[in-house]
């Protein structure tokens, strides 16, 4: 069985910000179902709906 939850984040944007979040999700067997990410100048804010196997 899988667990679905919502993650939100804000902070300073860098080229690797989104790639790092996706890598952590993938390393734990998860996937992004929906994502909304906005960049304003050097800042980033986003909301991600994530699905992970329950054992993680």
TrEMBL record:
This is Transcriptional regulator. It comes from the Bacteria.
């Amino acid at each position: 069985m899988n667990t679905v939850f919502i993650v939100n984040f804000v902070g300073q944007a860098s080229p690797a910000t989104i790639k790092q979040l996706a890598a952590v999700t993938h390393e734990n067997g998860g996937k992004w179902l929906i994502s909304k990410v906005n960049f304003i100048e050097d800042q980033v804010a986003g909301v991600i709906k994530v699905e992970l196997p329950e054992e993680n």
